What we know:
The chain has 17 helices and 17 strands. It has helices spanning 3-8, 22-34, 45-55, 71-81, 97-105, 118-141, 171-177, 181-184, 195-199, 202-211, 257-342, 346-372, 385-391, 393-400, 421-437, 479-482, 502-512; strands spanning 14-18, 38-42, 59-63, 86-91, 110-113, 155-161, 166-169, 216-223, 229-240, 246-255, 381-383, 404-410, 417-419, 443-454, 463-472, 516-522, 526-534.
Amino acid sequence: MTGAAQDAAPLGALVLNVDDDEAVRYVKTRSLKLGGFSVAEASDGATALAIAASMHPSLVLLDVKLPDISGLDVCRQIKQRWPDMVVIQVSASLVSSSDRVVGLESGADCYLTAPIEPAELIAVARAMLRLRLAEQSAQESGERYRMIVESAVDYAIFTCGLDGRITSWNPGAQALFQYAPEEMIGAPHGRIFTGEDVAADIPDAELRAVRGGHSVTADRWHRRKDGTLFWSIGRTVPLRDRSGAVAGFLRILHDRTAEKQARDALIALNTDLESRVAERTRDLHEANRLLRHQIDERERTQEQVRQLQKIEALGQLTGGIAHDFNNLLTAILGGLEVARRRIDDERTRRLVDGAIGAAERGAKLVAQLLAFARKQDLELVAVAFNPLILNMRELLERSIGPAVRIEFALADDLAIARADPNQMQAALLNLAINARDAMPDGGVVRIETTNVTLPASDGVEAGSYVEVAVTDTGTGMPESVRERVFEPFFTTKESGRGTGLGLAQVYGFVRQCGGDVGLESVVGAGTTFRLRFPRA
């Protein structure tokens, strides 16, 4: 057969398209017709065998999975009855190397993985028909494997012997790799691979595969003569002699660099977009977190303001009532003292003394109310807290008892504070006794002094303050108790163990001095009261 006959043979050749999926069959038929082929169709194995017997197609495009007979069995029967008929098996699910091996062992000339691009399908079909025509021509004229088509400039097609050396080199290969035929024929096929693939033993691995009768499909980078790289889709198919033994292999390559670059650019763009979306999502989460934090802070601040307003209102009410009671008690005490001096009867005098004691206790209670309301008369002077606290040590130890140990941590450079020393002693004693009551099984009370700087807050100016902290290791307070601890008459103690005015008096005294009271408490971990007085 002449070269012209080989070129023309695939054009108009009859192709039997066997596929049970009508849509897929239509796509392949349309592609083949656009490639210049005549096409007959079959949807099952029995119909395919009948058409092959009656029409003798040049090529059978055979789906591996058919509803009646396995595509592998159909291929075996075709090859037994019509050995020269080219069979290309196609599968969308059986795509592993072992599946391709089974397909080729059944007699298929080529095994393709669906979906197949139309241009690739046409090129492979033409190449396989050219290969079969070349084999026939070689058998008739003694020229083996003469199948390279001069017009196939878009595909690099070359053949190799079992030793891996190139035996033919078509113009498409010359255009793609930039090597002339005389440079490549006789050279090892590993020359077309990159140094990285050679180091990874890929050329020899492919050679071993085709020696075993397996075709190889691979997409990878190749290097041109000038050193530039291109991305190709390649297939390597074993070539067999008349006896069916592998005598070499055919390799078909197509340049897909532009598609590879476009796909890589799309992947990079998607990755960048995903990264940006993730970053924006993180920013949004952070903004939401900050907003929730600000809302929580605002709610806490509003609650504190409401609490301060509540205490202030209670203080004003308490102060007015206490002031009136103080006036009444002053008159009562004065009248009782006058009456006592004029009574000679001892029994009556004892009754008057009891009334005077009750009135004095009432006066003390009124004084606590006035302290909470910040309306008591204070003697504000410059006070050195460290000596004042140390002078109270014996009193504090007696008051809290032996089960509680008292510790002192007094700053050496403590500034002079502005306060009423008598009221300060009463406040410290009050806090120490409360700490003792919070430690029924014993514990530690720690009194600490230090210099602090405070920002401006409700009723307190920004500046330097002297802080006296009283800390216990007791039971601590839940939030519901912390919110009300400075309210007058609020107490968690059982009836008869307090009026609920002790902490209210401490709070009113410190605020009247121009300072502030801080409270820190954790349930099960103790409580700290921080009394802050302005520097003198």
